[in-house]
């Protein structure tokens, strides 16, 4: 075991667990998370810290570039779709958040073109569906503003994954009944800001604007 993990585990057992002891004992036989959080595997994105949540509140799926397979390609990513199915049908979460983030390596790789990933064959094949998003961005931004392109890629990727979620009849049915909300986020690691996708306006809105609510 590496030192960082050993130290962290001991710290958890001696201090953090104690802090949550009652909650953990209460949770040992059941879980009732209110939210399914689909985030990138990136080590800098921490759903619990970002949403100030306790254990038991947020069910999570992590993968490169926070993707959901389209309905027609669901069989190619059973890991993701089975976790969504469980969260929606069994845990009956009230909300699904797809959270993209700044400086996303997966999105950057897709933006450079998956044909450059011959040394990472699994990643290349996995990111292929993002080619479509990249093509849209190439049409929208013709100048070579790489930062602007990267952010747009991360945000449009979130919108694309939301679209995929809506292709699943069981999800759409719950959304239409008002039992489930879908949200798209873009989290800026350097500033801590989160922009939330506004479907009607087709824009990402700074959540700092929610302060006055
Ligand atoms: Zn990422």
UniProtKB/TrEMBL annotation:
It comes from the Bacteria. It is an enzyme of class 4 (lyase). Keywords: Lyase, Metal-binding, Zinc. CDD domains: beta_CA_cladeB. PROSITE patterns: PROK_CO2_ANHYDRASE_1, PROK_CO2_ANHYDRASE_2. InterPro entries: Beta_CA_cladeB, Carbonic_anhydrase, Carbonic_anhydrase_CS, Carbonic_anhydrase_sf. Its cofactor is Zn(2+). SUPFAM superfamilies: beta-carbonic anhydrase, cab (SSF53056). Its EC number is 4.2.1.1. It catalyses: hydrogencarbonate + H(+) = CO2 + H2O. Belongs to the beta-class carbonic anhydrase family. Reversible hydration of carbon dioxide. This is Carbonic anhydrase. It comes from Alkalibacterium iburiense.
């Amino acid at each position: 075991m590496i030192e960082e993990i050993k130290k962290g585990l001991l710290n958890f057992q001696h201090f953090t667990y104690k802090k949550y002891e009652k909650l953990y004992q209460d949770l040992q036989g059941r879980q009732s998370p209110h939210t399914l959080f689909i985030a990138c595997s990136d080590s800098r994105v921490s759903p619990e810290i970002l949403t100030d949540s306790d254990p038991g509140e947020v069910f999570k799926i992590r993968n490169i570039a926070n993707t959901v397979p389209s309905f027609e390609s669901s069989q190619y990513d059973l890991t993701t779709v089975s976790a969504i199915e469980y969260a929606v049908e069994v845990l009956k979460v009230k909300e699904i958040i797809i959270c993209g983030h700044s400086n996303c390596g997966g999105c950057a790789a897709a933006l450079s073109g998956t044909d450059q990933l011959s040394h990472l064959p699994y990643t290349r094949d996995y990111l292929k569906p993002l080619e479509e998003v990249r093509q849209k961005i190439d049409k929208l931004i013709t100048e070579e503003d790489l930062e602007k392109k990267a952010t747009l890629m991360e945000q449009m990727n979130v919108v694309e994954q939301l679209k995929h979620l809506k292709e699943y009849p069981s999800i759409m049915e719950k959304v239409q009944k008002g039992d489930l909300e879908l949200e798209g986020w873009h989290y800026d690691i350097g500033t801590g800001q989160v922009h939330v996708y506004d479907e009607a306006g087709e824009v990402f809105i700074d959540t700092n604007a929610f302060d006055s609510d």
